[in-house]
Amino acid sequence: MNKHFTDEPRSSGRAVDGPSDPQSFARHSQHVVVIGSLAWSLVNFRLHLMRRMIKQGHTVTAIAPDFEPAVRNTLRAEGIECFEVPMQRTGLNPIADLRTLFTLTRVLRALNPDYVLAYTMKPIIYGCFAAQLAGIKHRFALFTGLGYAFSESRPTGRRRVVRAISVALHRVGLRKITAAFCYNTHERRDIRGFRLIPAATPLIDIPGSGVDTRRFAPVEANLEAETRFLFVGRLLHTKGLGVLAEAARKLRAEKLDFTLSILGPMDTNPDAITPTQLDAWQKDGLLSYLGETRDVQPYFAGASVFVLPTTLREGVPRTILEAMASGLPVITTDAPGCGETIETEVSGLVVPQGDADSLAAAMKRFITEPGLAMTMGQAARERVCAYNDVNLINARLLVTMGLEAGGDADPSSKSDAMLESAA
Fold first, then answer.
1. Angle formed by the axes of helices 241-253 and 356-368, to 10°?
2. What is the per-residue pLDDT for 271?
3. pLDDT value at position 223?
4. Do residues 259 and 288 lie in contact, with contact meaning Cβ atoms separated by under 8 Å?
5. pTM of the model
6. Which residues partner with 289 through β-bridges?
7. 329 CB contacts (<8 Å, ≥6 apart)?
8. What is the mean pLDDT of the chain?
9. Res. 242: pLDDT tops 80
């Protein structure tokens, strides 16, 4: 069952002299706590990482809000203990956030781990600060995308206030962390520019959360089939769905043969696509809505081209990596973390944000140029295996943290045949 902050302390397995240098290898078994803002993400994004920690002989505990039974059972089957804490993923409610900080501090004092790794904004701020208050020596922040507060270069109104508060909280919560990781050059620039971490704190580049390139693999393509475009993500205007629908309308007007499928959850925030709008697009024959799923692999297997016309700061979108590993070319925008993930004109096409004409032109190329999707899809697969395989990414993380012996953990210049050595 889930354990809560009222549970009795457990043995930490703390080494007497753990490594103070993140590059040194922890030769003794360590207790590592991983903190996320969504319990499901611990399975979807961090399970491979936690498995690797356990493979290295370490004890792993997961902390997040709202553990579902399926998530709890999955983690428990891997030998990962779960602790549930209250946390609001979004918003600035000082009472709720203080409760989160207080609870995390009590949990970490009870667990007394050797290492804390926190990812996404609130776990980074409150998890790392709580770890400092609890006296945890090794504290790491994994920035997966700075999000709403940093999406505009010169914010006004409420967004400006949110950014100021976010910057202040980062500076307080991360002032004594061991090291931080980030996904792309835009994040690096803002982390350093806004001094979210001290200037002397190492900031290590990691190209995303990685993808299981064995599970997400190409299937034999039907070259005679119509071009099948696939979007995967939350149904938000800022994900570019309105622009995508308009591009589809332009292509339908040219009587071109293709399908466009939308896969992902409806959302409740003000930026969400409404059911009325979605129904209208379907009635106009622009697209088909497939609903939502927690297993996207079969949908990638049935697609020709992946399209993500987002305007958000995405870190390194996991969906892009999964599509590329599945042998799909990618159409995306020049939004931070997206366009730099692919090689334009090699493994996909990059278009300006919010430009329906450019998006339609990119989609048209795949419809009218036979073999383009296969050629670019092969290049996409080669690129993601070289730079973004989950084993390479996780090896780099653990070596840097001092939880795995050193070696070639740099996720570059790797091919399919070389991945087994990192598994």
1. 50
2. 82
3. 61
4. yes
5. 0.82
6. 262
7. 305, 306, 347, 348, 349, 366, 372, 373, 376, 377, 379, 380
8. 88
9. yes
